[in-house]
Amino acid sequence: MVGLKGRSARWDRFAHWAPGASALVLALSVVLLILASLTHRAQIDQVPASSALTQAAPASAGARDTDLALYDVIAARVGAGENYYRVAVEEQRLRDFPVRPGLAVRLPTLALLFAALGTLGMALLAGVLTIMMLGAWWLRLREEPGGDEHSTIALLLLVIGTATGLKLEYLVLHEVWAGLLLAVSFGLYRPGRWGAAWLAAAAALAIREHALPFVLLLGAMAAYRRDWRECAAWGGLVLVFLIGLAVHLAQVSPLISAVDPASPPWIVWRGLGGLTSNVTLSTSLHLLPGWIAAPLVLLPLLGWAGWKSDAGLMGLLLFAGYGLLFMIAGRDNNFYWALVVTPCWFIGLAFVPRAVRSLWNSARGH
Length: 366
Hints:
Helix content is 64%, strand content 0%. It is mainly alpha-helical. It has one domain (63-359).
């Protein structure tokens, strides 16, 4: 256990930066916020207004978003006993959705769960996972330096970040479940104590391959600490996932042909607007003007950087890494990929005032 004096020293590490370095960090932060505000329209306005997550009111049965309707039908047919792969390829082809390459066909895990549990059962499971997430983060905030005093606002921000995806009509989205499970894993994780977090991350990876960067980060951090046992556990999970993905692609391959719809490229280099629009459109920030919402997407990163703790470092690396991926990969209509990280993203806002105050005092030489 780190004593109170040690915790305070870790928390105030910003204050020990050289004045010039602190001033540079503040200046760069202001520049990024301004750039986010100026570039918001480049991406947000290109997404159709009918996209399910950007609708102010729940979609009616007759206005169900096409992606959500696709997953509804696939789950229903699998529940009736049909083979997942044949159903998925057939339904995507019928709706002119891409089926090439094989990654355009989702992993079968979520459809099989819906077939087994039904909508009510999945809603109850989401509720249980949400309670687990809040409990895990309540404990982690109490244990981390500086976390306890900010726990109320941090937990409120956690709820806000999770709320959009947990609407009943969005539970068929794979990213919603991956994001909820990764939030549970993040809350449960402690360096050297990773068993429960490993299980939650494995479940997320089984639903959506976009959880892979989270697993790779924890493996890299374990390697940096020279905790080879934990590093091997995360590496083993990656290996099992890659084998499972190969089996998945092998199941899809015989069912598709060269004349089937192909997916446009996913590497599109959208820049800063790709990051801000993804997070904005996947959360309640879409209700705000873009020039306000976009800077609010970036501010949590400053808070994570200012929270000098194991959780703060992990959050900074995790969300900056996913942010970079959103800037490089994903088309405008893939904005919902951000649901993989939005549950915990805004926790960083709770630590922004302290980080800015420390940087400002350090820049002034105090």
